[in-house]
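Exercise 7.
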Amino acid sequence: MPVNFVPAQGSLPFLDHLRQESARFREVLADAPAGAPVPTCPDWEADDLLWHLADVQWFWGQIAEDRLTRGEQIGALEQIRPRRPDDRAGLLACYDVSSARLHRVLSEIPAETELWMWAEDHSAGYILRRQAHEALIHRVDAELTAGADRSPMDSGLAADGVDEALRIMRGYEQEAGFTATPMGAKLTIAGAGGEHAWTVTPVRVQGIDEKGSAWDVQRFLVVDGPDDEAAAEISGTTADLDCWLWSRPTVGVIERHGDPVALAALDAVLAEAIG
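Solution. The predicted structure, written as tokens, is:
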């Protein structure tokens, strides 16, 4: 079941964020023990995390550099995908090449350029947005792995991360062939200070997509702003809300108030694997 892309809130310097978060990720992991466990990804050690982002940034950099737009082109990438190096020096070298290329090609290509993407928005602009958030969340993982101080998260980028997590990763917009049955009442998710707020309705989405695949998933209907009729509210800094939506530890407290049934329905959506 596709999810429609909603443009980022305002204009954010995603290229700068991608560079900064990628650099901090490398800095933190460079001296971390190879076998240090990643608390937020229990099956991974530090070198697995380093390789993961190196591989992800290679993948999207290749798509952007070669202007790939078709699924069969993506399948063919497996034939040229780099092999994981055996040591830390090799991993860092691979990461450096992948990260530098991703930033370079995304800085050169117009944001409206059509590229292959799993989301409804097939633009270079969305790939840049997604990769800035990928680097941000994995930078948090790296700091937790190394026991390093948590660097502040840019509040604008974090707010956009909340928006993406709600609308794209967990969101649903009505489309032919699907029904959305409310699982609970509306809830407001509010950033501290009142600058950003969203109202979500947990729904069970069922139907058949254009490829004939059956869907039965839990998602959110999302609208901007608070709602006086919301049965419950979740609040915190945008940085903490972004971490919470990605199952990462928060720095501050996420406040939960209101109808426990509505809150349980929200938790059920978040507990379901993204797919």
